[in-house]
């Protein structure tokens, strides 16, 4: 809850509206952009029966996206909850789910050994690869290499997933729960009969957890399918009938996302946009190498035990997911700290280095990374980024557009444009790093317009090609566009330092022209 407390306190001190975004990493450098997309999906789903479309483009986009958490949030919003509250209600749920998963995982691995359980829980939740933390603090090595290691450490660090990524956190927790249920079901079988009553209940729960984990975080779904198939092979197909159900449940959402990527233009574009490429081999070696070396000491023969096989298969499956999936490949490492924690604690026990050194080692593997992230968020929260805070004038302009403006898409400067869909329910021409078409080019052009760096002829031609019917300039872009746009403007509304321009529909080109770019 640390980022939320910071953001709310600063919003109150600055007399600004908190947008609801609470994440530190964004698309193409736009902080909080992912959370603003979640908020936009929730608002759009509330108006369309739980199905959302992409509001970060004026290109055609169908109401095809159904996500269980956002559908519930949309219902809460329809019932009168504030949009921010309807979204942020999942933050404490995510924190509790991660804690419960880490505790259950450690208890299953170490039984009645409280020190080992505590160490495993600490590493499961707070592990941040030490090399990444060291380079982040000291600023050693090149900037790109430091960022790659920081990204790797951030993917491993489960404790910061509720910072803006509650669906991911809950997805990881459900993946762990699914595998624990599967292990219990297999170990409850006798004589290879997979349908005995003792195995039926955990198997059903494991299948449901796999379905939801894959739906909320597809990378977990891919990893689960690989683990379950490899588990069946390792057991020489003993219990394969039991494993087929959770594997099928994990695969169903993947088929849904595959269908979206082929049938909907917005999802097709987003699925082919490599905003987070694979990390270079040196970054993987430096970040994961020390952890893997200690974990290797903790490997032991599974002797046919389902849980022991899962502990070994999960890291391998994460690596396969990382190399097999082109979209946001580093997300495959989320949840990897759970099996690594078991293997690392076992490896440390084999070294017989003692509890004092063990405590110091855990602190070195967790505290520096946590502290660096905390410092980074403190500095970000103290700023005035439009993704987090809306001054009164900007908020009033957006409220008026939401309630009174005629239908149509919106053209607004970046990064302010990122908040428009969630605050108004309107689509924008550009606003999100990988959900808007040609984001870098479009962001430059729209900022040229609102920065007054276009001639009148250029400005009018550009606005007409976007297909937008409403322009909004925030207080960070106070230039008056009435002279530049001239006859295109039907009416202007001022809200302090913010302005809304309504354009004449007779002078606008078809919105389909927006797909051609500026």
Secondary-structure blueprint of this entry?
Layout: H1 2-13, E1 17-18, H2 33-47, H3 68-78, H4 83-88, H5 90-110, H6 114-126, H7 130-138, H8 143-156, H9 166-187, H10 197-216, H11 218-234, H12 240-263, H13 265-271, H14 281-297, H15 306-324, H16 337-351, H17 355-381, E2 389-390, H18 392-404, E3 410-411, H19 420-424, H20 439-450, H21 456-466, E4 470-473, H22 482-485, E5 489-495, E6 498-503
Parallel strand pairs: 3-4
Antiparallel strand pairs: 1-2, 4-6, 5-6
Q: What about the largest sheet? A: 4 strands, mixed
Q: On the 0-100 scale, what is the average pLDDT? A: 90
Q: Give helix % range.
A: 55-70%
Radius of gyration: 25 Å
What is the helix tally?
22
**How much strand?**
under 5%
User: Order of SSEs, N→C?
Assistant: HEHHHHHHHHHHHHHHHHEHEHHHEHEE
User: How many distinct domains?
Assistant: 2
Instruction: Give the strand order of the largest sheet, numbering strands 1, 2, ... along the chain.
Output: 3-4-6-5
Summarize the structure in short.
By secondary structure, the chain is mainly α.
Description:
- The chain is mainly alpha-helical and 518 residues long.
- It folds into 2 domains: 92-379, no CATH class; 391-516.
- The protein is 61% helix and 4% strand.
- The chain has 22 helices and 6 strands.
- The strands form 2 sheets. Strands 3-4-6-5 form a 4-stranded mixed β-sheet. A two-stranded antiparallel ribbon has the order 1-2.
- The longest helix is centred in the C-terminal third of the chain and has 27 residues, at 355-381.
